[in-house]
TrEMBL record:
A Pfam family it matches: zf-CGNR
Coiled-coil ranges (or none): none
InterPro entries reported for this sequence: ABATE, ABATE_dom_sf, Znf_CGNR
Domain (Zinc finger CGNR) ranges: 140-181
Protein's name in the database: CGNR zinc finger domain-containing protein
Classification via Gene3D superfamilies: Jann2411-like domain (1.10.3300.10)
Signal peptide per UniProt: none
Organism in which the protein naturally occurs: Amycolatopsis silviterrae
Length: 189
């Protein structure tokens, strides 16, 4: 990650990387895009660079984020999709103008409209959410096993048994907690 962009949990799936801009949802939530500039930063490291962001656009982004979180959680728990979340995801998806293009190296890149607006970037994120919630993409929606997190993540592991949204944070903390519990047990024996 480039210097100057700490604190973002960037996974390989765009939509759930985006929902991970609010972490510890079931504990003490940490807002990682508290200002328009932070959203600009996140979009830049996510391949969706925009020129500017207004507070209203940040609100739009956060609304989409929570809609994706709600839809992804419903999918992971095999519940019906909340209609309001579906509407927000669809509204954002159709609103932006972005195009997928190939780089010379054969990688996919997102090209936003010449105005490169936040709406364009959000449409890419919304479309990504559609692809994982709809089951179009190979993987499984699951909830993080950390009780203070429970973030929805997209498990693309071969065995589909991934337990944590992020190995470096939630996964590590759980492992450490288990290690400490075992140490205490040993000392008590
Ligand atoms: Zn987690």
């Amino acid at each position: 990650m480039p210097a100057g962009f700490p604190d973002f949990r960037l996974g390989s799936v765009l939509a759930t990387s985006f929902t991970a801009t609010l972490t510890e949802r079931r504990g003490d939530p940490v807002e990682r895009i508290p200002t328009p500039q932070r959203l600009i930063d996140w979009l830049a490291v996510s391949g969706l660079a925009v020129d500017s962001c207004t507070p209203a656009q940040l609100d739009l982004a956060r609304e989409l984020r929570e809609a994706i979180h709600a839809a992804a959680t419903a999918t992971a728990t095999q519940n019906a999709l909340p209609a309001s979340a579906v509407k927000i995801i669809n509204d954002r998806s159709v609103e932006g103008r972005a195009a997928a293009v190939l780089t010379a190296e054969g990688k996919r890149q997102w090209q936003l409209s010449p105005a490169a607006s936040v709406e364009d970037a959000l449409s890419v994120i919304a479309a990504d959410a559609v692809s994982i919630v709809s089951g179009e993409r190979d993987g499984r929606m699951a909830l993080c096993a950390s009780p203070t997190c429970q973030a929805a993540f997209f498990d693309t592991s071969q065995s589909r048994t991934r337990r944590w949204c992020d190995m470096n944070t939630c996964g590590n903390r759980q492992k450490k907690a288990r290690f400490n519990a075992n140490q205490r047990k040993k000392l008590a024996q």
